[in-house]
Amino acid sequence: MSSSGPVFQNSVYVGINLQNILYGVELVLYFKTMHVLLSSNIRHKRSDKFYVTFSSVMLLMITIWVSTQAVFGEKMWLIDAAFPGGPDAYWAANVSVWYMDLGTTAITVLQLMTDGLMIYRCRIIWDSYRVVLVPAIMWLGTLVLGIMVIVTSSLPGGNFFSGIAAQLGLAYYCVSVGLTAILTGVICYRMATHGQEVKKHLGKDYASVYFALLSLIVESVLPYTLSGIAFLVSFGVGSSTSIAFACVYMLMMCISPQMLILRVASGRAWDEETCKARQSTLKFNTSTQQDTSLWTESRSRCEENGAAAQSRTFSEKKDTV
Fold first, then answer.
1. Full pLDDT tens readout for the chain, 321 residues
2. Closest CA to 57 of 126, 18, 110
3. What global pTM score does this model have?
4. d(CA 292, CA 253)
5. Backbone region of residue 271 per phi and psi (left: phi > 0; alpha: psi in -120 to 50; beta: other values)
6. 3-state secondary structure the chain
7. Cβ–Cβ < 8 Å for 16, 70
């Protein structure tokens, strides 16, 4: 991919502005999540501390990324505007500066965290470790490739968008985006099929609590997956606009899991008891449908007997008086 020319420079500019807007969205979601998790008006779970720490580390990682991109853009276009060769030459000479390497490391850590959270949520939704066996192996592959990308892009003259670093980066994001696509598909399938069963036996209103369209989007971290596919396609074909897609992808890497954590904190997400509770309810509902007439007749008799008993008691009290 060409990392020079007006199209690339405009893509960098647009990408930085887009990620600044999305960073504001992340801040709103983060503080809303902290308000829910740290509120004294609700009963806290043991997992709340984990989600507080996880969300804070995610915010730290994305803050490092956004800050380094903003500083680099300021130096390239304003402070060192007179650099020989212009912005393109400045990019080529300084893209591996230490704070850019720090940003690359932070975003790699963030991606590993997000993918790990998706694997964890997939295990909860399916209530099975077998389902996440292949995704866990792929996650280990992204860990190795991520370290290699960080090392090669941080070498003197290294550039994530060209050379060996670009090839390793393409392999890294192919595995990572493939992992998220698999997890998103598996989670959506599980929720959709289970939601149909609940709707069939208990009705649409009951099923909509956990299986509405918004639930599928948030639980499956769909925006993160779609933005990753968009970036991967543009990066794979060597488009100069891939840097803009990358900026959106990096922020969705933080926003999507933060929306999921907020949903978990609000008690509206799947937990380890959701599927079990629905299965037991379906079994109860199925068995009672077979004996509806008997149950109704028994209930009527009880009500009649109770009314008769109350009438007798009232008569006895009246006679006594």
1. 556 678 888 999 999 999 999 999 999 999 999 998 887 666 667 778 899 999 999 999 999 999 999 999 999 998 988 888 888 888 888 887 888 889 989 999 999 999 999 999 888 888 888 999 999 999 999 999 999 988 887 777 666 666 787 788 889 999 999 999 999 999 888 877 776 776 666 666 655 555 666 677 777 788 999 999 999 998 888 888 888 999 999 999 999 999 999 988 887 766 666 555 545 544 444 444 444 343 344 444 444 544 444 444 444 444 444
2. 110
3. 0.79
4. 50
5. beta
6. CCCCCHHHHHHHHHHHHHHHHHHHHHHHHHHHHHHHHCCCCCCCCCHHHHHHHHHHHHHHHHHHHHHHHHHHHHHHHHHCCCCCCHHHHHHHHHCCCHHHHHHHHHHHHHHHHHHHHHHHHHHHHHCCCCCCHHHHHHHHHHHHHHHHHHHHHHCCCCCCCCHHHHHHHHHHHHHHHHHHHHHHHHHHHHHHHHHHHHHHHHCHHHHHHHHCHHHHHHHCCHHHHHHHHHHHHHHHCCCCCHHHHHHHHHHHHHHHHHHHHHHHHCCCCCCCCHHHHHHHHHHHHHHHHHCHHHHHHHHHHHHHHHHHHHHHHHHHHHHHC
7. yes
